[in-house]
Amino acid sequence: MDSEKITITLPTAVAQQLATAGDQFTADLIQRGLRDLRIEQALNQYQAGGISFGAAAELAGLPQSELARHAYGRGIEPPFSDETVAEELAI
To answer: Contact at 8 Å (CB) between 79 and 56?
Structure first.
């Protein structure tokens, strides 16, 4: 994996926790946070009617089925075709 060094300013308590966590942990934490942020932004835009569910999935970088699980977790009901419902019930 390519890497690039960046400098950021954090609250002291956060910086102290990250200082003892290690570089890989910090990188994983940032990647997970960015992924969650993309999902949240995509679902917010979908819920506001700004984009379709398919566009939201693309924006989040996820398949629609995975974004649907995140949507349900946030109390958002995604649109389903009869085919999608049949596939989900078969699982």
So the answer is: no
